[in-house]
Amino acid sequence: MGRFLNTIFILFVVCWICSFTNKAIAGNAVKTDVRIIHASQGQNHIDPKLSDLAEELSTVFKYTSYRLIKEKNMGLNENQKGVVKLPDERSLVVIPTRINGENIKYQINIFKSGNQVFSTQILLKNKRSITIGGPKFKNGYLLFNISGKTL
Amino acid sequence: MKKACKIYDEKTIGKFVDNELSSEKSKTISEHIETCPICDSITAKYNHLSNIFVQSTSKQLDKIDTDLLGQNVLEQIKREENNFFKKVFDYFSPKLYLKIASIVAIMIISLTYFQERLIRPLDIIGPSAIVNSVDGNVSSVMIFETKKSKHTIIWFSEA
Amino acid sequence: MASNIDNIEENDLVSRLKQGQEWAFNILVNKYQNMLLKIAYGITLDREESLEIVQDVFVSVHKNIKNFRQDAGLSGWLRKITINTCLNWKRKWERRFRWSHQSIEPKDENKLLRAKKDGNNPETLYREKQIELLVMENIGKLPEKIRVVFVLNTLEGLSYDEIAQHMNIKRGTVSSRLHHARKILLESIKD
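Structure tokens for the assembled complex are given below, as produced in the milestone run.
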């Protein structure tokens, strides 16, 4: 019994150290996933890959259709640029400018025909996402869902 | 073919040798042995085995130098008491600490395992993102969040 | 010092040990070292290891004396710790017994067993020595549960009831194990 408890104790110490190590090593890189979504009031349709997000968005938007146009998963180091090409000669640039275990600071820029049309700086909670929307596209709008997770 | 006594088995003779029988039974067997060469032989062999073991052990023990045993023990105790890691471990060794540690360990392991399910809902108490600045060629910008999971949304209208 | 060892009451010794008195600890070592060495040697059949084991036992006693409750008696408690320490040493002895079997051969064991004590002639002495070696070697081969019972009975002279209590087994089991030990040992020095 004593040996069992000792083992548990050692396990606890290892877990405890690991929890610190995890935080300490976080901040080197971040997994950034960008989903390009077309939201419209067309035929009812929710892309199965968007079921989690569409449910949230439907509480604030009146759109009946959410289609996933593109998805890009990137592993970005601090200050490394991630570029996602968008329809209509648009592009999205995501740069994690500061990474720690709790938050990721992103610089997000949207370009159209080479000109910057939108720029924001956000502090995203680790393992969560933000949605940016607005550009008109095919009787609807484009939404960019950006999620970040430290590696 | 090994001869066996029809009255007493070897196990009973063993108990007799070990003085584990009632005095009455011991007396009966003792009388029996005088007339039974088989039981007499078994008794002799058992005693012989014991004697060999006792004498051999005794001879070996005589060769062990125990003069420094006490001193060595005390030195070992002092060494262990001065060992930092040992001290830390001993501090946590009592059962109460171990029980607490085991509960905490189980909790941590469970939380680590289920963190996707358990920790995330705690995280979503606040907005998913804080918007520090917005700029660009836009006519309007709205920032809002969903009620349920406080998902942050930026909505802009191109100029 | 000897008179101190003999005169000191067990209760007094224990309370002094609990207070951490080095003097009391020396008395404890002097008083019980032979008993513990005998058990340890009986189980391990190795002088060096039994000395190490007994040393470990006393260190363990020093650490745990505060938790000692006197219901089992000090010697019973020490005996128990020694047996457990010896059994934890098991792996080591398994290794040792593998290479220690380079014993006397060929042996006409029946002849050996029949060796009569007809004086101190070299042949008789040689035969007796061979029997002793053979018995000790085969004690080393006994399964540990059987060996411990055999040691406690033969070397310590404990009764079946005392052994049963020590090892947490039934009295009948003690008797069976002893019978088994003797049978194996006698068989091994026969044909």
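The helical segments of chain A are 2-25, 51-57. The first strand of chain A starts at residue 29 and ends at 40. Further analysis is deferred to the final report.
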